[in-house]
Amino acid sequence: KFPNSRLQKLRYATSQSEILSLCDSFSLGDKEFYFDRPPRVFENILGLYRKGELHLTESVCPRDFLGELEYWGLSSLHLEPCCAYTLQRASWLLPIVDHGLDQDEQSNPFEGMCG
């Protein structure tokens, strides 16, 4: 479904080193993989796989949410329209901080929003 995602790559990993490059720990005997990631956001990621819908949890920092999407190899383009609007609106409300970046460099719109 999502060929570039971390979970899809893990599904087709064939060596121990390849598996460990995609997760923090695993047990092949128990068929368990361990990811040291925030569980609240992972619920949303699983929702995308289970129901085909990706939503933004209200209590999650948008910058952290985007970071998690990047970690899992997913795009914010998968967000449902209701949440895509919320994420876009949050980016408009963030303060603009000039870090002296060249115009060719992209800045992170969520820089400085959360700790």
Describe this structure in words.
There is one protein chain. The chain has five helices and two strands. The protein is 42% helix and 5% strand. The protein has a two-stranded antiparallel ribbon with strand order 1-2. The protein has helices at 6-11, 16-20, 39-51, 62-72, 81-93, and strands spanning 25-27, 32-34. It is elongated. The model has no long low-confidence stretch (mean pLDDT 82).
Map the helices and strands.
Blueprint: H1 6-11, H2 16-20, E1 25-27, E2 32-34, H3 39-51, H4 62-72, H5 81-93
Antiparallel strand pairs: 1-2
Strand segment tally:
2
Which percent band covers the strand fraction? Answer: 5-15%
Structural class based on helices, strands and sheet pairing: mainly alpha
Overall radius of gyration: 16 Å
Helix content estimate: 40-55%
Give the CA-CA distance, first to last residue. Answer: 33 Å
The SSE order reads HHEEHHH
The DSSP helix count reads 5
> What spatial order of strands do you see in the largest sheet?
1-2
User: Which of globular, elongated, flat, extended, rod-shaped describes the shape?
Assistant: elongated
- The parts where pLDDT drops under 50 for at least 5 residues are none
Largest sheet: 2 strands, antiparallel
Kindly state the mean pLDDT as a whole number? 82
Task: Spell out the key features of this protein.
mainly alpha; elongated; 5 helices; 115 residues
Short description, anyone?
This protein is mainly alpha-helical and 115 residues long.
